[in-house]
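Worked problem 6 (solution included).
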Amino acid sequence: MPRVFVQGQPVASYPPLAPEARRGSVRRVTEVGEEVLHKACRDVTEFGPDLAALVDDMFLTMYAADGAGLAANQVGVGLRLFVYDCRDDEGVRHVGHIVNPVLDRLDPARRRLLDEGEGCLSVPGAVMDVPRPDRAVVRGVDKDGGALAVEGTGYFARCLAHEADHVDGHVYLDRLSARDRKEALRQVADRREEVFARRAAKTKALTT
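Solution. The predicted structure is:
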């Protein structure tokens, strides 16, 4: 059985990096506190080469930063779009992008919250426990305008919910208590330089 799902569909084989990354350039990752991260993104209304190039850049930027997902406002573009390359709790890999994503509202009686560690490329070096549902469904379109519905469980559900938060103008710190938010920012202060050194080395390895 295939262990990789691309755009929500199973495939027999897939390369270590999404093919889009080979066409992309690494962009700067925005950090918590920058305005673009803290306001709702605009719907994508124009589909074409510029959008495709943004998707390419986002994939390569995500890999350079060792991320599992990346939203457009994390590269300074206030559009409703995210990319992902993430494994679920069963080790199944999920790869794709979603334009104009909308996260389904789940019946509280039929969902289970998982309180597990979560990080963010825009909060470099911090990992905090954040409660998220164990299942997520995101609906939207692809870069060509084709309809998409992607479902995830476990860690992949966390990824989908996290990125959907981003396009709505929220970072995971917004879900923390004041005390835990302060701890997360302390972790950033302690680890930021180390994180950026790793990203620089990974960027060099991917682009030379």
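Discussion: The helical segments are 49-64, 154-167, 178-207.
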